[in-house]
Amino acid sequence: MKPIVAIIGRxxxxxxxxxxxxxxxxxxxxxxxxxxxxxxxxxEALWNDAPFLLVDTGGYxxxxxxxxxxxxxxxxxxxxxxxxxxxxxxxxxxxxSPYDRDLVSILRxxxxxxxxxVNKVDGERQxxxxxxxxxxxxxxxxxxxxxxGYGVPDFLDDLVASFPEAAAYPKDEDAVINxxxxxxxxxxxxxxxxxxxxxxxxVVSDVAGTTRDSIDTMVKRDGQLYRLIDTAGxxxxxxxxxxxxxxxxxxxxxxxxxxxxxxxILDASxxxxxxxxxxxxxxxxxxxxxxxxxxxxxxVPADEKSPKLFKERLxxxxxxxxxxxxxxxxxxxxxxxxxxxxxxxxxxxxYSTRLSTGEVNRIIEWATERTPPSIHKGKRLKFFYTTxxxxxxxxxxxxxxxxxAVHFSYKRFLMNQLxxxxxxxxxxxxLLYREKSGRMEFDxxxxxxxxxxxxxxxxxxxxxxxxxxxxxxxxDVKKRKRDESSQ
Length: 487
What we know:
Elements: E1 4-8, H1 15-23, E2 41-47, E3 50-56, H2 69-82, E4 85-91, H3 98-110, E5 114-119, E6 142-143, H4 152-161, E7 176-183, H5 189-197, E8 215-221, E9 224-230, H6 243-255, E10 261-267, H7 274-286, E11 289-295, H8 307-317, E12 326-328, H9 339-351, H10 357-370, E13 375-376, E14 379-380, E15 383-390, E16 395-400, H11 408-422, E17 430-435, H12 450-454, H13 460-486
Parallel strand pairs: 1-3, 1-4, 4-5, 5-6, 7-9, 7-10, 10-11, 11-12, 16-17
Antiparallel strand pairs: 2-3, 8-9, 13-14, 15-16
Helix pairs in contact: 10-11
């Protein structure tokens, strides 16, 4: 296990900006408005060949009218308890706040390894702002700028030097299955992840839009490691007006690019909506595996609890994802939530499957013989061979003489045959078509003499050259005859 470093502080001191600077990415959502971060946000970091996990947290407040203040405080305290080192961020421009004094007193009695960082110090001239912070009893505050990087290297040198020897933190070699949990706002995405992890890792509220960032959570089951990515709720574009929500939705959609399986959460008490289909379309476009999870199953009336009926309605609305499996569950009661891991494993296994070229060709050959393709401009459409070129998702390329002549209905037929006879029934697949002439062409040897090569059997350019020469001679003879007759 790598060392865990938690970044804490009151709102709007630049914790997420410093997080992005150290992790060398832009995974944490940053905005001038206080209280953007609410959950614990984990990221991989590396400095001086020392890897560690960095945890971004929400702004710590003791007394506040914000409805999420209590839940954020709980997340911060949990981050402190699990961290090997704590980085407390202070505001070099705003000065000392009463909340800073509260946090310093909490850390002195609860954690032995704390680094105090004064952020928003952009140069040596501003280091004089550190003097006020010595009144908190800090011995060695670090002046840094998360925005511009000033002072960050010196701080990180001391941070990683405090870690135990690298041998105490072996790298985890388990393959990780990346799972994005997506859906409409207030469908229960964070609640399901909390159930899967067995602890309150994410802030949960009845208020739609509680989750703003894409939060990674690692969990291990039966020796398999999963990265659960909680995302912001995706509303219709016409309803998204605030800048912060737009960024949240963009990050939610982008999270599907790095996932293997997308679990689409639907509110079973509301049925299948158009926005559910839109969200499913995003996942399908990214090419990831898909599982539909009907949450809040405990709220569905007894006379309507028919999983088959729900799936039929879903298939009618999202015909492009009829292959995707589904599950009914309840995050509130925990009903069938653990079974979700089994479905994830099944979809991922098919999603990463590689088939032999011989097996694929036998299926395509048998299918084309049983149901031949249509005639194209009086010529038979020929399938020469098919091969799998990549996985995640399984992608096949079929070489034919006329790729544009393969009708979409015949493409669907071949895809269904591949699904049926390979057992890849729960994963997206791609079948592409490329042109192959069927003629074998042999290039001349580099050291062959051109005149000898064209002797007896001449290539097309040589034949054209000789023919043009003959035509010029004929024209010259005709011209001389015309000139003589005119004299």
